[in-house]
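Reminder to self: C-alpha cells first, then the designed residues, so the page reads top to bottom the way the pipeline ran.
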C-alpha cells in the first residue's frame, strides 16, 4: 500500500450467499458491501431487497453490481434500464453501479463491441444520476477489454490463493492489480470465510487516496481523500465538511426546500450540483475539459482559500 492510501475491507454478495446475518458481518470487520442488482432474467436478485434493507439498517455503505449477459448495444441498454428501474424502486442513487464483464460468451465478441457495450451501459447509468464503473478479473482487463476505450474507475479481481481466507489473511499489496484507470478496488479472494455468511464469499479492499493537507478550517473534519457522488464508504463527517464549504461558497443552500439542513453528510444530487457549480467558477480546481465533480486536493484548497 502506498503511503497516501487508506484501504477498507468489504464483500460482494448475491443470493448465492443466502440469508446473511449482517450484524455479524459488520462485527467481523465488513466496512462496505457490493450487492448484486438483477439476475440474468432481469429480475432482482432473490435477496436484493433484504440485503439493501439490512446494510441500511446496520449503516454499512454499499454499491451494486450487474453481471452482464448482453452481446450487443441494444441488450446492454435494456439491462442497464432494468438496473436503473430497480434502484429507483428502492430510492438508491448515491452509489456506483459496477458493470461486471466476465461471462464466457462475451470473451470472443471483440474489443470494439465490448467497448460499445460498456459506454452504452455507462450512458444509461450516469444519465440516471448514478456512478458507473467496470468490474472484471485481471485476465479480462489485460487481454479481453480495450482499456483505452473507456475511462471509468475499475474494480479488478486477482486471487493470490485458493485457500480459505479472512480479512486477517490479506496477502498485502505486492499482487495488487495494476490499472490504467482509477483502481477503485481489488477483489482478492473468492473463498472468504466471514461470520454471518454460510459458505464462501468474495473479499475486497477499496482504495481511498489521501491528500497531504489535513488542516481543519470549519466545524467538520477535512477529508483526507477525494470525495464525489457515488464513492463508496466515504466518511459522512468529510461530506459535511464539503457541504459546509459549499454553503459558504454560495453554491449550496443552507437548507433544503423542505426546511432540512443541507449539511447531512450524504453526497447526493444537491451536493453534486453545488460542487459542479463551484468548479465552473474556479477552473483551477480540475484538469479535465469540464468540471470533474470531484472534491480533490485542488478543489478543497480553493474552497478554503475563498474564506480567507
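Designed residues (308 positions):
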Amino acid at each position: 500500500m502506498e503511503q497516501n492510501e487508506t484501504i477498507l475491507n468489504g464483500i460482494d454478495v448475491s443470493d448465492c450467499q443466502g440469508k446473511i446475518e449482517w450484524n455479524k458481518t459488520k462485527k467481523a470487520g465488513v466496512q462496505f458491501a457490493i450487492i448484486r442488482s438483477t439476475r440474468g432474467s432481469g429480475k432482482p436478485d432473490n435477496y436484493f431487497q433484504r440485503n439493501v434493507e439490512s446494510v441500511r439498517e446496520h449503516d454499512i455503505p454499499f454499491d451494486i453490481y450487474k453481471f452482464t449477459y448482453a452481446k450487443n448495444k441494444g441488450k446492454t441498454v435494456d439491462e442497464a434500464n432494468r438496473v436503473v428501474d430497480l434502484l429507483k424502486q428502492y430510492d438508491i442513487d448515491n452509489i456506483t453501479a459496477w458493470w461486471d464483464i466476465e461471462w464466457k460468451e462475451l470473451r470472443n465478441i471483440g474489443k470494439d463491441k465490448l467497448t460499445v457495450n460498456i459506454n452504452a451501459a455507462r450512458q444509461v447509468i450516469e444519465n440516471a444520476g448514478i456512478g458507473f464503473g467496470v468490474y472484471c478479473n485481471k485476465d479480462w482487463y489485460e487481454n479481453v477489454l480495450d482499456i483505452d476505450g473507456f475511462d471509468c474507475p475499475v474494480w479488478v479481481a486477482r486471487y493470490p490463493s485458493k485457500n480459505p481466507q479472512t480479512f486477517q489473511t490479506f496477502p498485502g499489496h505486492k499482487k495488487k492489480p495494476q490499472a490504467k484507470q482509477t483502481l477503485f478496488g481489488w477483489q482478492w479472494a473468492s473463498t472468504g470465510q466471514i461470520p454471518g455468511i454460510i459458505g464462501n464469499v468474495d473479499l475486497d479492499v477499496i482504495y481511498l487516496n489521501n491528500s497531504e493537507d489535513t488542516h481543519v478550517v470549519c466545524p467538520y473534519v477535512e477529508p483526507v481523500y477525494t470525495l464525489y457522488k457515488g464513492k463508496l464508504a466515504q466518511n459522512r463527517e468529510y461530506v459535511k465538511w464539503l457541504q459546509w464549504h459549499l454553503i459558504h461558497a454560495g453554491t449550496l443552500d443552507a437548507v433544503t426546500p423542505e426546511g432540512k439542513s443541507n449539511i447531512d453528510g450524504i453526497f447526493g444530487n444537491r451536493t453534486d450540483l453545488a460542487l459542479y457549480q463551484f468548479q465552473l467558477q474556479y477552473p483551477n480546481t480540475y484538469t479535465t475539459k469540464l468540471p470533474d465533480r470531484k472534491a480533490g486536493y485542488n478543489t478543497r484548497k480553493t474552497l478554503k482559500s475563498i474564506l480567507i
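The chain has a mean pLDDT of 92.
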